[in-house]
Design a protein that fits this description.
six-stranded mixed β-sheet; 18% strand; binds alpha-methylisocitric acid; binds iron/sulfur cluster
């Protein structure tokens, strides 16, 4: 499992020279983000990057990480690229497919059984192509990466939107779709528009109930789910240096919820402590040699307004614990205002379940702080009112906190330890409820809380907070309780108050683990055979998508005009559908089933123009496909927000949707569409969204002269014979237009590799 020290040395060797060159060329001091990006530019891209124009810039990331639910599609694509081995160090992590039902051991064994085919596939592909394989039970991708692979000043891409977690250790780590991962593993550059820079200056120091989680909960409230779009968020200031590396990881992780490309902290003593504590002294020693380049220049931090596009300042000494939600992670409530909000909005005040852990919040520090609250429930004779679960982020953390007695404390308080996996965070939760139609509340220390995300139930109001706040709420069972000020009645009828949480940043006896769950790939994988059963319901080899026919798209039907939030969960739901992540045709049966039809306010009910009848979205689209009729999907703002899952782009492509026309896109989703050869366009005037009618026949004009920066035209032929026509924008560069023409980026790679 050893990290690749030689690779890190190589990165650091060129790092200082690159930074010096960039400083000279741009004639100004540099932010940390710029330094890391400049240090990872592909040959010949410096001028473009320095100019900070609108064009895409090519980068050479150091690593790739993939989680099982997205790795299947990434690797099915990679298998077609025709390479014997991955070009950069890569790993696969089995974490998303484990369902939480009873408890860690049974759930893990059940998962190994039900997902055997997929695990065997991922293990053998990894073995063959030189990819490190983390078995089910080893832990959640981002925690395992933070503990083993993240390094200051590095650059990584990962097929999961919370890949930015590694920013806690000073790495630029970006979530991407599987097709992007496939490119990098095939040795091709990875492109990104040079991001905007948002600086967050942290002053003061956390105390009492406030934790790193509250920083990002507050930032989410300020920036909202769209505010970080196209930007990298860089944290700095004395407050930043006071936070543990894992706390920083939490902040960067949840930066995905504001749409940020990634978030990053500079290398500091806390990072060095974490590196040494996780047995990577060598990396800390290497990083020390170029320390001044692993943080932003002093001039930048002294006058941030001059160097960042936007600056936010947060005083940690004044930061209150926050609770965000329900249904969206940017509805931020300081704890002092939360009880009133619950009452005013009529949210269910009774808390049914508190869930801590996940990739976002299961560090040693998190667990010890939460356990200090749990211990008080025991000591002060408080009966825990809500159900309570703990999801450790990795086997190493689980083993260590178990050794140190903390899991025992949770058990005493009535908690259930779940497997080291995503579980409830991604809807892999067989929640037992007596009445699913009841409005109910849960609170988690995870990051995402869209409707139905955790348990598939639209009546569940999910809130997000730090692990210690979640634990306190679970004990109280009441969302109008404020642990900072209120008392609880214990089993002896006394009024008791919870003391502030106490935690340890690092285990005093050090981290330990018996079997971390890592499997190294074969030295020579050429003999390893990868088997996919043609009759499998879970895995399906990919067929290339058809190339563009060379004409404008005329006579398209409207498949759906989606109203309001349309996240990747609406487009390609997770939970029960995760099992089909390696089978494009089967998973396509969930396409857009969560999206709300503008014309009738219903989910999964759209008009089939051929029959005039309303039916499920996937079936309707399959009917159009069978008749050779192309369609278009229309959407609102920030379409495709949330996950990196490229299924949300591949399903419409597979089922014959020709274009996605929206007010705005989330970054990863937009790229995923382009990669798959799909046309993703935006209204030049968002008000034109209103012109689209249910029975329209739609043309997209201008494709024969498709060019970067040049608008296309949409013509609507309404049923009453009238027409409307308006301009639409796109962000395709020359190369991406080639992807569109070829029917997908992979078709181009395939051709190149064959030559
Ligand atoms: C998530 O948190 O939504 C996920 C599940 O980790 C996804 C990946 C997926 O859909 O497989 C993500 O964030 O990218
Ligand atoms: Fe897994 Fe949840 Fe983390 Fe995504 S956010 S990687 S689903 S634990």
């Amino acid at each position: 499992m050893a990290f690749d020290l030689d690779m890190i040395k190589k990165v650091y060797d060129r790092y200082s020279t690159r930074v010096a060159a960039a400083r000279k060329a741009t004639g100004k001091p540099l932010t940390l983000t710029e330094k890391i990006l400049y240090a990872h530019l592909s040959e010949g891209n410096a001028q473009k990057a320095f100019a900070r124009g609108v064009d895409y810039v090519d980068f050479a990331p150091d690593r790739v990480a993939m989680q099982d639910a997205t790795a299947q599609m990434a690797l099915l694509q990679f298998m077609q690229a025709g390479r014997p081995k991955v070009a950069v160090p890569s790993t696969v992590h089995c974490d998303h497919l484990i369902q939480a039902k009873i408890g860690a051991e049974i759930d893990l064994n059940t998962a190994k059984d039900t997902n055997k085919e997929v695990y065997d596939f991922l293990a053998s592909v990894s073995d063959k192509y030189g990819i490190g394989f983390w078995k089910p039970g080893a832990g959640i991708i981002h925690q395992v990466v933070l503990e083993n692979y993240a390094f200051p000043g590095g650059m990584m891409i990962g097929t999961d939107s919370h890949t930015p977690n590694a920013g806690g250790l000073g790495m630029i780590a970006i979530g991407v779709g599987g097709a992007d991962a496939c490119d990098v593993m095939a040795g091709l550059p990875w492109e990104l528009k040079f991001p905007k820079l948002i600086g967050v200056k942290l002053t003061g120091k956390l105390s009492g109930w406030s934790s790193a989680k509250d920083v990002i909960l507050k930032v989410a409230g300020i920036l909202t789910v769209k505010g970080g779009t196209g930007a990298i968020v860089e944290y700095f200031g004395e407050g930043a240096q006071s936070l543990s590396a894992t706390g920083k990881g939490t902040i960067c992780n949840m930066g995905a919820e504001i749409g940020a490309t990634t978030s990053v902290f500079g290398y500091d003593e806390k990072a060095a402590i974490y590196l040494r504590g996780t047995k990577r002294e060598e990396i800390a020693a290497l990083a020390d040699t170029i320390k001044e380049h692993l943080t932003g220049d002093a001039e930048v931090y002294a006058n941030p307004e001059q160097y960042f596009d936007q600056v936010i300042e947060i005083n940690l000494s004044e930061l209150e614990p926050h609770v965000n939600g329900p249904f969206t992670p940017d509805l931020a409530w300081p704890i002092s205002k939360f009880a009133a909000a619950v009452k005013e909005n009529n949210w269910p005040a009774t808390l049914e379940v508190g869930l801590i852990g996940s990739c976002t919040n299961s560090s040693y520090e998190d667990i010890t702080r939460a356990a200090s609250i749990a211990q008080q429930a025991v000591d002060k004779h408080l009966k825990t009112k809500a159900e309570f679960t703990i999801t450790p982020g990795s086997e190493q953390v689980r083993y260590t906190v178990d050794r140190d007695g903390y899991l025992g404390t949770f058990a005493e308080m009535g908690g259930v330890v779940l497997a080291n996996a995503c579980g409830p965070c991604i809807g892999q939760w067989a929640r037992h409820t007596d009445d699913p139609t009841r409005k109910n509340s849960i609170i988690t220390s995870f990051n995402r809380n869209f409707a139905k995300r955790q348990d598939g139930n639209p009546n569940t109001h999910a809130f997000v907070a730090s692990p210690e706040i979640v634990t306190a709420f679970a004990i109280a069972g009441d969302l109008t309780f404020n642990p900072l000020t209120d008392t609880l009645t214990n089993e002896q009828g006394q009024q008791v108050k919870l003391d502030e949480p106490q935690g340890l940043e690092m285990p005093i006896k050090g981290y330990a683990v018996e079997d971390a769950g890592y499997q190294a790939p074969a030295e020579d994988g050429s003999k390893v055979e990868v088997k996919v059963d043609p009759k499998s319901a879970r895995l399906q080899l990919l067929d290339p998508f058809a190339a563009w026919e060379g004409t404008d798209l005329n006579g398209l039907k409207l498949l759906i005009k989606a109203k309001g939030k349309c996240t990747t969960d609406h487009i390609s739901m997770a939970g029960p559908w995760l099992k089909f992540r390696g089978h494009l045709d089967n998973i396509s049966n969930n396409m857009l089933i969560g999206a709300i039809n503008y014309f009738n306010g219903l989910a999964d009910s759209v008009k089939n123009e051929l029959t005039g009848e309303y039916g499920p979205v996937p079936a309707t689209q399959r009917d159009y496909k069978a008749h050779g009729i192309g369609t278009i999907v229309v959407g609102d703002e920030n379409y495709g927000e949330g996950s990196s899952r490229e299924h949300a782009a591949m399903e419409p492509r597979h089922l014959g949707v020709r274009a996605i026309l929206v007010k705005s896109f989330a970054r990863i989703h937009e790229t995923n569409l382009k990669k798959q050869g799909m046309l993703g366009i935006t209204f030049a005037d968002p008000a034109d969204y209103d012109k689209i009618q249910e029975d329209d026949s739609i043309d997209i004009k201008g494709l024969t002269s498709f060019a970067p920066g040049k608008q296309l035209t949409v013509v609507l032929h309404h049923k009453d014979g009238s027409t409307d026509s308006f301009a639409v924008n796109h962000t395709y560069n020359a190369q991406q237009i080639e992807w569109f023409k070829a029917g997908g980026a992979l078709n181009i790679i395939r051709k190149q590799m064959a030559n």
